[in-house]
Write a structure and sequence with these properties.
single chain; 119 residues; Ribonuclease iii, N-terminal Endonuclease Domain, Chain A; 6 helices; globular
Length: 119
Amino acid sequence: MKSALVYAYIGDSVYETFIRKYLIDKNICKIHDLQQESLKYVSAKSQRRIYEELESSGILTDKELDIVRWGRNQHGSKSKATDIVTYRIATGLECLIGYLYYENNLERIKEIMERITSL
């Protein structure tokens, strides 16, 4: 098993790649527009909002919630752009995506990401 921050590191990449593909598939073609739209999903503030909506909707399993908490409670770098609680919740969400990626559970990542893009 990897550390939570390692899962978050790869999870950040998987998450952002899914969002980028989603936005391109929506026929957003200008780089500036892609960047602006992506902020609705990839900023720490957006990820906190998204996580809170996922949590309240009941879509995440108990194990997935535990993985988010595990990632959230790790001490890593700090963000200059947002408060520490928001940053850690975002890290927890990225940890979950990274964990699922390493478990080769791509179908579950797809389910969660499709839910995220429908919010």
